[in-house]
Amino acid sequence: MADTTSLPRHVAIIMDGNGRWATSRGLPRSEGHRAGTEAARGVVTRCRELGIRHLTLYTFSKENWGRPADEVKFLFDLLVRFLNRELDTLLTQSIRFVVLGELAELPLATRKVLAHVIARTAHCTEMTLNLALNYSGREEILRACRRLIAQGLPPEAVTEQRLAAELYTVGQPDPDLIIRTSGEMRLSGYLLWQSAYSEFAFPETLWPDFTPAHLDAVLDDFRGRSRRFGLTSEQIDGA
Asked: Using an 8 Å Cβ cutoff, are 155 and 178 in contact?
């Protein structure tokens, strides 16, 4: 069991390996995505139990639109069913639901459900669950820059704080820990600004097989790391 001291405030996960999980079992990719939603439920529940205040799940990137149309449709249908099923749980556990990404480009039925869950959970305070949906880290930074330009700010007024205030994650801490399952070791455009000082973990486990026990193991490893944020160990130890 993970030690609940020194836990990250914000965990972000790239849920990778659904397709490979299904293929290795002779199943259609859709079954991998379906199994992945069950893994997501278990991880959300475990983070809530531990008191991790922010969890971000990379659900659908802008690049994912290039996948086969039937797979994309299945993913959004699955998301709608998942949210409709889990809304009462989110409310009971006081989990606020937030979307990081461009909602306007999503199917109408998906947008309606997302808007409903966002509004219903807006008052929840114990945890924030972010779904990075139709998301691109580069596009997020460009969007923030465009918004600053539209405000007419002079160059000297463009600070890290002002730019961060225009990101989707405004008001939330940067992720302390980013996990990518399935053994792949890349960010894929995920939270590029916010991950400047994140710790990373790349467990080999495919996402549908990633259990709360796997999460606990990653968190135990995280606790043993020294986070210096550009300082020396001596400075940190003497603080």
From this structure: no
Q: Which of 136, 238, 239, 234 is nearest to 192 (CA)?
A: 136
Q: From the CB of residue 179, how many other CB atoms can be counted at a distance below 10 Å?
A: 25
Q: Is 16 a catalytic residue?
A: yes
pLDDT in tens, the chain (239 residues): 555 558 999 999 999 999 999 999 999 999 999 999 999 999 999 999 999 999 999 999 999 999 999 999 999 999 999 999 999 999 999 999 999 999 999 999 999 999 999 999 999 999 999 999 999 999 999 999 999 999 999 999 999 999 999 999 999 999 999 999 999 999 999 999 999 999 999 999 999 999 999 999 999 999 999 765 565 555 555 55
| Catalytic residue flag (residue 64) | yes
Q: How far apart are CA 179 and CA 187, in angstroms?
A: 10
Which of the following is catalytic: 3, 16, 176, 221? Answer: 16
d(CA 224, CA 7) in angstroms, rounded, equals 11
Note whether 177 and 199 are within 8 A (CB): yes
What is the DSSP-derived secondary structure letter of residue 95?
E
Q: Catalytic: which of 64, 77, 209, 221?
A: 64
